[in-house]
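Board notes, transcribed. Complex of a protein with FE2/S2 (inorganic) cluster.
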Amino acid sequence: MQAAVAANMAGIEADCGGLLTCATCHVYVREPHASQLPPPSADELGMLAFTAAERRPNSRLSCQIDLTQALDGLTVDLPASQH
Ligand code: FES
């Protein structure tokens, strides 16, 4: 989420600044990286219930993804709307 906001990428609203209270950083993570991410926490799962767009099996809140070297090349798709 921070990388997207720093790059002024449209579509990542991140209204709460990463405090896990808005779900406006919703993304769909593509494979092979989706299955390499740690599972969502209970709090992230709770917020994923409030995404504006359809929740999919690869839905994640981007503010909860810690970028590491292993995630180099991570690709996400954005929902049509975050609100
Ligand atoms: S930025 Fe608000 S939940 Fe991710």
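The chain has two helices and three strands. The longest strand covers residues 26-29.
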